Every structure is written in structure tokens, then in C-alpha cells.
Amino acid sequence: MVIIGGDAAGMSAAAQARRLRTEDELEIVAFERGAFTSYSACGIPYWIGGDVGSRDELIARTPEEHRKRGIDVRLHTEVTAIDLDGQRVRTRAHGAAGGAAGGPRGAEEWTGFDKLVIATGARPVRPSLPGMDADGVHGVQSLGDGEALLDSLAAAERADGGARRTLRAVVVGAGYIGVEMSEALIRRGHRVTVLDRAEQPMSTLDPDMGALVREGMTGLGIDVRTGAAVTGIRTDADGRARAVVTADGEHEADIVVLGIGVRPETALAEAAGLPLGDAGGLLTDLAMRVRGQRNVWAGGDCVEVFDRVTRRPRHLPLGTHANKHGQVIGTNAGGGYATFPGVVGTAVSKVCDLEIARTGLLERQAERAGLRFVTVTVEATGRAGYFPGAEPMRVKMLAERRTGRLLGTQIVGREGAGKRVDIAAVALTAGMTVEEMTGLDLGYAPPFSPVWDPVLVAARRAASEVRAQGS
Amino acid sequence: MVIIGGDAAGMSAAAQARRLRTEDELEIVAFERGAFTSYSACGIPYWIGGDVGSRDELIARTPEEHRKRGIDVRLHTEVTAIDLDGQRVRTRAHGAAGGAAGGPRGAEEWTGFDKLVIATGARPVRPSLPGMDADGVHGVQSLGDGEALLDSLAAAERADGGARRTLRAVVVGAGYIGVEMSEALIRRGHRVTVLDRAEQPMSTLDPDMGALVREGMTGLGIDVRTGAAVTGIRTDADGRARAVVTADGEHEADIVVLGIGVRPETALAEAAGLPLGDAGGLLTDLAMRVRGQRNVWAGGDCVEVFDRVTRRPRHLPLGTHANKHGQVIGTNAGGGYATFPGVVGTAVSKVCDLEIARTGLLERQAERAGLRFVTVTVEATGRAGYFPGAEPMRVKMLAERRTGRLLGTQIVGREGAGKRVDIAAVALTAGMTVEEMTGLDLGYAPPFSPVWDPVLVAARRAASEVRAQGS
């Protein structure tokens, strides 16, 4: 069993297959072009911001730990070709020192497989604009990216006299990563400007909900500039980024962080003739087997997943899905049986104490899917109104006309807002109508919820709206 | 439309009926024997403990506010008989002053109805043991009870010299109310002993989970005595409680709080020949109409509700259900259509920062229902393990053998543990199997959850156990 990519999906698959099969039954080799395995890229903003003390805390399982469990991890080893007919992959070692695991530097060799797992992940979008590769422009996709950014920050923060300098940081993109990185940079004491092309930050929310996130970010002192299309990076004579250029002007920058999103890393798979979807991700069956293949599986950020609401494939890179994919792949490759049922599109994030969550479809996604729907937005507190710390949260809910089926929920608010989205995520998975949701028996006690949980308040309003609309 | 009982179920019904019908179309009269309407009895422990500053904060809507909306609220007016054939109720005013709303003190009169709503609530269990009615023995069911307890505490806390006295408080019963009252009394600075007959506190949890609550309570300095059957209250010459007596000895007490549970207040309904269930609660149809009646509805703590897991009626007094009942009754009585779908038995509570939650069936309840099941208990953190403040929580899950259907979930842990039970509550409502739950798309980000949410960790383990058991 050969695995390409040593992060969540690949190494979960390896670990699960190993649980089912001994080393005599199944040899497992994992190729990783970087230096780390099984790490949490989602934790990078918290490492940069100082919540997490060191890189190593983000590593769930080291190469040594995997090796102890009988998984042959080869670091600094890039797979450069997949030969499906020959059932083999070509690798090139480019390790700093090479050595036992990685082989001599630059050497190419072929490794045969009976079972192949493609878990090549995603790469951050870097628009091909002038200066995008300049010094001081950073992605935050891998632990290596995180280290480079931290080094760059540490160097820039050291002023000539030895005092700590406040930097001008520009974050390009106000999605999850952009928002989390803004908070991290603010916590390091810098001046932060966030640029986004969209009308509001968090375009994973509807604009009216994104506006609440803008308020929260502005309140933290983050300069949020929307409708700002970046046209390039201005560099100095040393090739170092000095400003981010937009149609409306320049934003001076000592450091630039790119949080524009990611694309599936599927060049290798494409070259091997494997099927890709509209978003460039590998297409798989329910058992995470690549379509048309018998012994090739794929999972994690390099695949497209089935959206249970629109019933179409989409690219949704998220660690929690990658881990589930790995679990499913490892079970199947190990001779068991498991399937991945798809996603409903749940996500949660925060910027300081403002919690941001969504599940299901936004208005524009529902429209694109051909759905007609009602939309309601309510404000309710997360605890009994009289309980100390009861803070308002905004809940937006979409329900299909006629059927009343829940289509999506967005929540923005303080403590307790974010994970409440799980109620809607489970209801969505179960295909519940908003009318059915009004009867949900949720945990109630004054420190935890009003008698009508905010999600139920929204469901009641939505159900009433569905009835009012008729057909 | 005549309503008996002016708290959650009754007044929600009144308010909802009024939304649907004008005063010309429907006259609404609500009789309340006490002095308050629409209050949160669940908030009383937090008022006693000082989280909530005043009684009035617990009142969601005053009699005046109801009257302004065209609901004729008559306080201090007890309904003493229901004449179903004559479609009328007999009332006795025993208000302090009587007056416009209440009628002259002691007067009895008959009021006719076209539609009747019985929302008489529940009364705290007071075992008929010596001394149970002594001064210094308090229930905490109504706002009046809360006021009496606060007065009693204030008087006892005032030492002779003017300094504040530390009291010896004994709480009888270690269920939700007992646990919440223990915390309240600890927060007032008193020495608290809790007595319960059961093996562990929180017998709404399985004993192994109750043991975690005991640890938490003991850690707060609460003296938890289980297996302690109370045989009476020792009083002094003035008839004031001085100690709680158990088979094993006496527990000296300056104040005694009863948290033994409640029974449906259905004497009036029973006298009128209305049908009661095994737990003494009124039996209704899905529209909350009393069985066999055309124009009589009942809701709140005086009814039995349909348990969606055991598929039998049970008594489950909780404000969140009472409000839903009121909503359903008001809609139906107002000429609309709504049903109450039943409960899955979700409850959440806390003792300081220890959160306690359950939904569905305990082991003994599942056995009693004739179910065979697997049980798993896992420990997992509520945030990514590397994120600051990631605290372990214990999740116990029951799933039916063969079908793998989720039967129940219990969670005990720190921040973020309690409301996670909602995930299981919705899954239970949807009839999901634990295998289906393993694929749930829940909110994931390091400050909110590990990649595998604790509930999913438990579901995975339970699914594996179901498979292992076979038939």
C-alpha cells in the first residue's frame, strides 16, 4: 500500500489499514515531500498568534511514531509520477540530508503498489500578479509556511535599536484563514489591513451576515477593505514586498499574508489520467475509491466531496473531512467496508470572541442549485435573557419553499454561538423540515440556553414563513 | 378560553391564541393562584446564588403585560373545580387585597368556557415524614418558594453581632435542582451537605457518570452523602428545622432545601374525571388535547409526554417543553393546527464549571424498555488538544444491538461539554444509527473542537462495538 502525502487523510488511512492488517499482511509506505506528518494546518493561525506555543504541538503524530506502528514513512520524498498500468509510482528524494528514510538526495526510483492512496492535499492560490513571489509574501498552508512566516515576522519585528517594532501587515483575503490570520497578527501587536474583492468579509457567509463579521473585526482595530481587487505587490530593490497594490491605491506592508483559498493539488493525478471534477479535485465513489479505479483511493483536500444538500460534488478542504476520508480509505484498503456519506458544508471560526458558523447553503448557493426558499434572520440570546453573560447572536436560516426542508443556517455571535450550528448540521443531514425542527428537544437550562434555543427561534420563524408563502 | 395556571404553558397558550384571534373573536381568561405569571422557575437557583439580581428578572411577562395584550389575568385566584359537562370552572379568590382582577377575598364563582387549558404545573415532592413542614424547610418550585427561601436565608445569615453567619445547609436530593441549589448555597458562602438515597448524585445519569458529578461537587467543598435515606427532620421547640435525620445519623442544618423532584399537579383534573397516566400526569393526544375531550387541552408540568425513544408516555417537567406545549395549544385553540412531537429526554445542567448533560435513555431505562444495547464511554477534549483550555470530557453512548440505532448519550465535562448533547438529541430525533453519526459534518476549528468531535469519537467506538457484537 503506497500513500502519497503524509498529512491527515494519508496518515489516517495508513493508521487505519495498519489496525486491520499486520505488517506481514500489508506493507505500508507513505511518501511525504515535506518534513512533517499528521499535523494540523488549521492550527497555524493560533501558533502565529501565540495561543499554541510551538510547532510540535500541532503535530498529532510524528514520522517516528508512525514508523513504530509499522508504517514506512519517507520524508522529503516527492512522488513525481503515477504509472497506473504498471502499478508503480516514481519518487525523487530531495531531503536536506537524505538518509535512511529519504534515500540519497535527488535520486529517482520506482516503487510498486497493490493499493494506492492519493492524499496530495491542496495548494494556496497565488494569483499570477507582479510580486506575488517576493520576500515577505507568505501562504499559511503547511507547517513549513508557518515557520517561514514566523521567521519573517521575528526578523521584521526586531527594530534596529533592539526594541520591538509594530509592523504593517496586509492580509489578502478575508475568508477563514484571512480572518484567523488577522486576529493572530493583531495579537502580535501589529497594524493589520485585510483586503478582499467581495462586498463583505467571510464570503462563506451571506453578505448581511458577513457585515456582522466586519463590525467585529473593525472593533478589534483591523482595517477591513472590501471591494479591493489586488493587482500586485510592490517590491523594493532587494525584492522584498513593500506594499499591496489595488485598483484604489497601495497598502504599505512589512509583511503580506495570502489567505485567498486553496486549490486541489492534483497535477500528478491529472497527468496519470485520473478523473477530476469542475473544481479540479479528484472524483471518487462513496468508498473514496477514485472513479474507474479498482485499487486507487483518494481523500482529503485533493478530492471533491458529495454535497448532501445540492447533491453535487464540490471542493471543501477541511481537516475534519480529511480525517474521515482517511478512516474510510484505510478501512477499505485494509479489507473492511466503509463509506463517506458526503458533507453538508459546516464550518465554524472565530475572531477574538466573535464566533462565526455556517452549515448548508448560502442564498447564492441555493439559487445556483435551482432552489426556491424563504430566508429569515433572528436575534436571540445564547443563555436565558436574565442570566449573566447572555449575549445576542444572529441566526439566519434558509428553508425550501413548499417542502419546508432546511437548506442552511448561519450564526454570528459571542460565546456559544459557533457550535450551535451543529444542531442545524445534524438536522440538515437528517433532511428535517424547519417545522420538524421547532419540536427538537434541545438541552435547556438558564446558563446554556433560553427556553427557546436561538436555532429553534429561527426554525419557528422559518416555518411560519414557509406556511405564509404557500406554493 | 379559560386557562388554569399562569406560568409557561398556560400563558404561552394564551399569547399564541391571542396572536391568532382578536378580542372580539376570542375572550381569554387566565386564573393563577399565585402572584406571578410567565416566570422561570429554572432560574431560581441562580437568583438564590446571586447570578440573577432580582426576582423580577425571572419574570418574562408580567400580568400587566399580558393584560395589555388582551388577556384577562386573574391573580390569587384558585380554580377549585372543573365542571366538564357544564363547561365551567369554579374559582376562589384568596388574594391579599382581591380587587379588580381577583375578586373579593374568599368569594367563589363559576366561569363558563368554550375552550379550557389545564396548565396547573407540578408540586415538589414532600415525603410525609416528621418535620417536613417545619420552618426552615424549603422547596424551590415557585417564585414564592424562592422568596421564602431568600428571606429565611437572609434572616439566618444575620448573626447576633451583625456579622454574616456561615450556615449549615442540607439539600435533600442530588438531582438537577439539588445540584444547582448546592452550588447556589456554596456561592452564598455556606457549608453544604447533599443527601441522596441513590448510589451516586444525578440519578438522571448512569451511576458511572454520576460519579464524575460527585467528584466535581466534592471538589467544590460540597459534602455529598449518597445511599442516605432521609427519615425525618428534627425540629427545635420553636418548630424550626435543626437537623435532617437519616438511618445513618443526623446532619445538622440551619436551613433545609428539598430537591427531591416534582409530581404533576392534577388533583383538580382527576376530580373532573380526566385521564391520568402512570406517573399521575394528564394524558393528551398529539395536539395536546386531553384524551377523550374536544375542547380541553393540557400542557406543561401537569401532563405526560410521549417519549420518542421508548415510545411510551412519561412525566418530564421542563420549561422548554412547557413553552412548546403552550405554543401548540394556543395554535390549536386559536383555530390553527400544530402538534407536539414528543421528547427524547434531553437535559443539561452545571455545577460551577462542570457541565452535565444527557439525552435519550440511561442503561436502566433501556433495559426496562426491553432493549438490548452496547455501551461505550470515551474521553476526549472539547477543543483541539493543543489549543489552550482544551479540557477532557467524558461521553457515554448507548446504541441498540443489531440496528445500531442511537439510544442515549451522557456527557460530563468542562466548557463546551453541555450543549454538545444537542448533536445527539437531534440524531436521536432523526432515528440515526451510530454508524450514520460517524459521518456527521460538525463544526470544526481548533478553538471549538478536535478534528473528531467528542460525540463522533463516541459514535465511532459505539459503531465498532455494534459490529463486534453481531446479532
From TrEMBL, chains A, B:
The cofactors named for this UniProt entry are: FAD
Provide the Pyridine nucleotide-disulphide oxidoreductase dimerisation domain boundaries. 349-451
Q: Which residues form a coiled coil?
A: none
Reply yes or no: does the keyword Lipid biosynthesis apply.
no
The protein in question is named Flavoprotein oxidoreductase
Alphabetized InterPro entries for the sequence? FAD-bd_OxRdtase, FAD/NAD-bd_sf, FAD/NAD-binding_dom, FAD/NAD-linked_Rdtase_dimer_sf, Pyr_nucl-diS_OxRdtase_dimer
The record's section on SUPFAM superfamilies has: FAD/NAD(P)-binding domain, FAD/NAD-linked reductases, dimerisation (C-terminal) domain
Record the organism: Streptomyces armeniacus
One of the Pfam families matching this protein, by short name: Pyr_redox_dim
Keyword Cytoplasm set for record: no
Provide this UniProt record's keywords sorted from A to Z: FAD, Flavoprotein, Oxidoreductase, Redox-active center
Q: Which GO terms describe its molecular function?
A: oxidoreductase activity
Instruction: Give all residue intervals belonging to the FAD/NAD(P)-binding domain.
Output: 2-310
Q: Give the protein family.
A: Belongs to the class-III pyridine nucleotide-disulfide oxidoreductase family.
Gene3D superfamilies from the xrefs? FAD/NAD(P)-binding domain (3.50.50.60)
